[in-house]
Amino acid sequence: MNQNASHFGEPATTFLKPHSGQGPVDLGRVVQAVARPGAPRPLRVDVAGGGPVGLIFACTLRSMLGDKVKIRVFDRRWMRRDGRIAWQGTAEGNNRREQVVTLQSNVWGQLPMLVRRRLFTPGNYSEMWPLGPDSPTHRGRPRNIKVRWIEDCLLEMAQDFYGIELVPEPYAQPKSWDGLDVLAICDGARSKTREDLKEAFGPSSRDLYSVGGTPLDETVLGIRIKGKVPDEHTVPLTVCQNRFLFNSLGGGFINMRLTAEEASEVLAYGENGPVPCIGKFGCTMRPDGDKFVCDRHRSVFKPSVDKLSFLWPRIADGVKFFGATMGDIVGITSFKLGMQQNPKFTAQLAPSTYAFLLGDAANSLHFWPGRGLNTGVKSVQSLAANLASRWAGRAFRAADFAPHEGLMQQLQYREKSRAWTTMLIPDENGLPRGIEDRIRAGLTSKEDRQALADTLYKRLLAVKSRLEGRMGALADDAWYRSRINSLDVKTLGVMVESGAWITREIGGDEVAVNIEVAPADTNASEPTRRAPSPQRPARPASRNIPVARTGPAGPRRPAGVS
Ligand SMILES: Cc1cc2nc3c(=O)[nH]c(=O)nc-3n(C[C@H](O)[C@H](O)[C@H](O)COP(=O)(O)OP(=O)(O)OC[C@H]3O[C@@H](n4cnc5c(N)ncnc54)[C@H](O)[C@@H]3O)c2cc1C
Predict the structure, then answer these.
(1) Which atom belonging to ligand 1 lies closest to the Cα atom of 78?
(2) What is the DSSP letter of 3?
(3) CA distances from 153 to 93, 146, 542, 543 (A)
(4) Alpha-carbon distance 333 to 225, whole Å?
(5) What is the ipTM, given to two decimal places?
(6) What is the pLDDT of residue 550?
(7) CA distance 481 to 485
(8) Cα 171 from Cα 191, distance rounded (Å)
(9) Which of 5-14, 111-120, 122-131, 144-153 has the lowest mean pLDDT?
(10) Whose CA is nearest to atom 15 of ligand 1?
(11) 193 Cα nearest atom in ligand 1
(12) Among 7, 25, 112, 26, which residue's Cα sits nearest to residue 69?
């Protein structure tokens, strides 16, 4: 049953005070309180999609507005279990995401304090990448964290602490928008809600992200391995080439960009031939003896059993490069990446109902520069601050959302330019050249092995010297030389031809969201209100809006999934 018509007349919810002090918080139970007579009516918000972005939005808005907001979040991957809302498992057809993401400190540093405390507990995050414009010294280094951990913690906090109504169903449009002020659309890159409301948001287009009239899509393999070496040691290996990217938290994903020919080998076979599995649904193939299999489809990953596979030895080389062995692989998956341009992110659905595209539903990005979730969290921090500063108990007007829409347009420009430059890397003459061309040229390179290894090593040493001093200790030069010497000549050719990370072209100022709304959270010490700086006078409270500003150029970032 879809519950879209329920709930808005219920009593307001108040937070239970958390324990003070550091470390994991006992989240306790939610306390019900009756709304004060005569108080302005609460802001009513529905959220379509309870992935990391939808849940961060809901918790952030509650932490800012407290009882002045009533929020429902819908997700089709949830179920009821023992009177609680929980994630569906593989038995229900839900493959939980295992990827490690890097959050910039401009982003994690502005999460509600209680959320930060819950997420960043020892062993559940690491600091692998260096400081940069979006992770300035005063806020700290970027942090690696698992998407699954973010989802688990926030689902728990949403129901146990923030008192958010969670609906384990796909979002469906109500018959009437009456009674709803805000619809936050957070249902991911293939957003059904955006599709259903396309007339309100206008047509998306892939034209800008096409080559010769064809939209550019890349296929990437995600090879999940157990960690063998300290996370940080692998950073120069990632940054000196563009074929493999390793993001880790004591183990993680080696991402491998493929040509179309290589992608054609990403197949799974069942008893009766090819099965739609890893190639179509991105299923994870796990080791089973000497092959890799999908439990769900009872199929086998073709390259792992095909003695003639040209892809399998290339996968093995990538694993070796990062100091691991084939025995360290715990799963292999694949995904496709492409981009589209959206005309706008804010739409009026009815006289007093506004809808907002957020997270991947707004901006689905190529993940090589590691900005998807960062951009998604910036988008929800911007909207939450905008709503909190403008809500006065009566219908919004379109003009109220100019600050947020402006920030969304800045984010789209900044992040898609960066991601597009990563997809079509300029060559030494500044001419864009797709990664597939580079990989093919590398595979047929005529250079001898020693020359290729020397070129890559020289490049790696240059990257290493730029990184030193901005992150923890790196491995010694001999270890990096041994990683390069372990590679096949074709892999060396690809790595040399793919080029080092183009840090100058994709670096520069970042779009920042400054949250200046005092939290209504239980915790009065929640430090999201920024002290007015001498250069910038404090604004009147009623005009505390998110400020989109391009950050000062901090230390130039040599690189980083950041
Ligand atoms: C390999 C890889 C590495 C990455 N690395 C980084 C990184 O280092 N840094 C970074 O910032 N980003 C990174 N990203 C991107 C990041 O993972 C995404 O940007 C982020 O997960 C998007 O979150 P979201 O909540 O917007 O969307 P999703 O995570 O897609 O969540 C959408 C939610 O909506 C639900 N849903 C869908 N349809 C409906 C419906 N009709 N009704 C109800 N619910 C619905 C889904 O069940 C899901 O829970 C990476 C991505 C990949 C693939």
Answers:
(1) 47
(2) -
(3) 21, 11, 33, 32
(4) 12
(5) 0.96
(6) 36
(7) 6
(8) 11
(9) 5-14
(10) 372
(11) 41
(12) 7
